[in-house]
Amino acid sequence: MSTPVHPPKPRPGDKVAIVSPSSGLPGLLPLPYELGLDRLRDEFGLIPVEYPTTRRWGSTPRERAADLNAAFADPEIKAVIASIGGEDQITVLPHLDRELIRAHPKPFFGYSDNTNLLLFLRNLGIVSYHGGSVMVELGRPGALHPRTTDSLRAALLGSGPYELSPSAAVGDVNRPWETPETFASEPLMEPAEGWFWHNADRVVTGTGWGGCLEILAWMLMADREIRPVEEYAGQVLFLETSEEMPGAGEVYRILRNMGERGLLRQFPAVLVARAKSWSFEQPLDAPARAAYRKAQREAVLRALGEYAPETTAVFDVDFGHTDPQLVLPCGGLIRVDGPARRITVTY
């Protein structure tokens, strides 16, 4: 693969596109969305520009793709940011204008279902950014998390190396977005367990590839934006799971099937996010959340042991569906220094 392109970053006063490539939740849940827009203006100095489907629930894949094509084509737009994720972005990809987007590269920020777009852009040779949605990170109740803000600011407005570090306190429990009382105080946080290192005896530097594990499974099933496995040799895999909270068995089976495809062994290092272990459908207490995260780590280790036993792995890294959230570059460099227990990304 050719050297990835790092699109120029916006500056304070620039316009940025706010899009909903997966779902029009801003129209149904305006409180975190409006708060996120205000913080983009006030904290980052950027001018958010909404597109026709940003707040529209039920837009077609073709309509959402039209917004994306327009955002990349507009010379006044300096970055593209997803409002939130969803579950059908894979149906949007066929309607995107590859040559238009390749000719007008811009930084894109999103995660979860936006894994589709991250890997679409990566295959065009464009570095994109896993993290930083408007409704979740920017619309966080009470206040922006300072660690999230620092990482997002570095990725969105800056460039160069950025060292990740484990957070002392993390959050997992949500409150309903429908009620104004939710936004009067910050989410509940609890002491973090730190990062867990496995095979930490080497230094690996490679371009980042990955995203939400459930979305990757769908993309693999549809053979959408997946390159021949040999093209991933030497890269750094990053994986996270969503608020749907897949069980340890499902996590193992997805990774087993990636192993059977010959994919897992291509990556000399893998970063695994701190698993989202609470949802409104599964409101686990603290011991159950810890057990869920432990079972997921063990499932990943089982698959690695069978298909990539030499791979260095770091668990409970603060990215994905986590609070705080650190931004990872998809297609940009990630350095995993096992002996020093350090992770450095290049924005």
From TrEMBL:
It comes from the Bacteria. Its EC number is 3.4.-.-. Residues 205-335 form the LD-carboxypeptidase C-terminal domain. SUPFAM superfamilies: Class I glutamine amidotransferase-like, LD-carboxypeptidase A C-terminal domain-like. Residues 16-131 form the LD-carboxypeptidase N-terminal domain. It is an enzyme of class 3 (hydrolase). Transmembrane segments: none annotated. One of its GO terms (molecular function) is hydrolase activity. CDD domains: Peptidase_S66_mccF_like (cd07062). Signal peptide: none annotated. InterPro entries: Carboxypeptidase_A_C_sf (IPR027461), Class_I_gatase-like (IPR029062), LdcA_N (IPR027478), Peptidase_S66_N (IPR040449), Peptidase_S66C (IPR040921), S66_fam (IPR003507). Keywords: Hydrolase. Belongs to the peptidase S66 family. This is S66 peptidase family protein. It comes from Streptomyces flavochromogenes.
